[in-house]
Predict the structure.
Amino acid sequence: MIHGWCERRFEAVRDALARNFGEHGEVGCAVAVTIDGCVVVDLWAGWMDRARTRPWCGDTLIDVFSVGKPMAALCLLRLVERGAVDLDAPITRYWPAFAAGGKDAITIRMLLCHQAALPGFSAPLPPRAMYDAALIAGALAREVPWWPPGRAHGYHVNTFGFLVGEIVRRVSGEGCAAFFQREIGGPLGAEFCFGVGPELDGRVADYLLPESDDGLVDFLLASESDQPVAPPEARRTLLHRVYCNPPGISGFGTVNTRAWRAADMPSVNGHATARGVARVYSALACGGSLDGVCVLGADTLAHATAEAAAGPDLVLGRTSRFGLGFQLTRPEAPFGTRPRSFGHFGAGGAVGFADPDARLAFAYVMNQPGPRWRNPRNRSLIDALYASL
């Protein structure tokens, strides 16, 4: 049964959501849409757990993985906007130890568009290392770039949030979790957080990943759709270092634990409702402000959502396109039908985006993973939405 509400003209979205359960193996999910800052779709259905004993509710929280990357980027962009951080300054201005390994010329801008050449850790890290902020910062400071920084881009799957978070912490005195809540999530009334306290565990849905990441690298290799960017064994090594070092960093065997939920890991453990994701993107779709709360100035937002890196992605093995912290729409992975749309997909198919031309925000969250950006479930919802406009 589908719960919630939508305007009559968007009944096709409700129908698509129902079909996703019958045809595409959905377990539990929610979808929210706003236009001009007003909610027009707020639907949910299914179950919060594998055993299907806990019904999904309107305020159910779920890990949205990389949907959190733009939220972390917004923290850093706010510091840029107020003059505390310079986009074209080297990271070493704010983090001196980062200069080790020949990284003294890597800029904030390169980091935000995935050109910093630090998508993983070369040296093996111990299990649970991702929960030790000082250990991770030290490993990143010692890391040697994997390609000439600024010359190419490659998706910083797990390191993006740690890098952005360390700069935010050094400049503002607090990590992304506290900064985002104080400056963005709290004022907006958007339920999106890095780090979930135990008092909210009853509202957090289980994410239905396998317990082991065995086979993950083979899956990633098989899913590459463009020309390989490196020989197979080199690709295998790279992907293992990116997705599986330290063990558990991509959520396999860890995503539903208390330690994971409590951590401040902006690339991977943002927990949110669909309403919360849509609320943030609603502000961005309306020029950066909503209901008197300015998330980002219009000029800064325009700069952040202009193309900064595009073409072959040295990590994903296919083409990608980035602004500063945002994925930009492209034919292979569209955010709707309009060319200025921007947002971010998350592992398993979660997605949030803004369409500034329609002043529209869209969010879809779920606990049954599928393809990230060619997911028939998110695709059917987005297609139904745009067919209804």
User: Anything to note?
Assistant: Residues 59-374 form a domain with the Beta-lactamase fold (CATH 3.40.710.10). The chain has one domain: 59-374.
